[in-house]
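User: Run a structure prediction on this.
Assistant: Running it now.
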Amino acid sequence: MSDIIQRRAKHAWEQVSHAKTEQAINEGKYQTWAQKLPTLILQCGILPTLAFLKAKGAEQDKVGKACSEWLLKPDGGASLIPWTRNESDIDESDIIELLQNEDSDVYRAAQAEAIRYAVWLKRFAEGYLEGEDAAGSDQDEGGTQP
């Protein structure tokens, strides 16, 4: 079991490291949304959260894509989720449609795995990325829940 935990952590680390080096990504916003991800999934569910993040902006979409990518990764989250479709046929842009068509057991498994992954993403973002300044540019986001 520790192997999947290590793979989960490694994937989250790679995503945060990439966000730090990508010029188009605001580190502070990415960190803020990575911090919010576990709570959003718990409060709203995985499907509304991913749809919300996709609609918000570059940093939010990047956080959502990291989670989606993990859920579909054959040696990652997909190995713990009993998808009814072959996950290798699906890319992360289709995960919203995929989740809509799955039964509740698969949905719950995907949501539980998304939360476990989101905690790692949050930890690494908090420790590695530069946070937003005290004024916070997040105030103009127009809300934080879908």
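The chain is about 65% helix and 0% strand.
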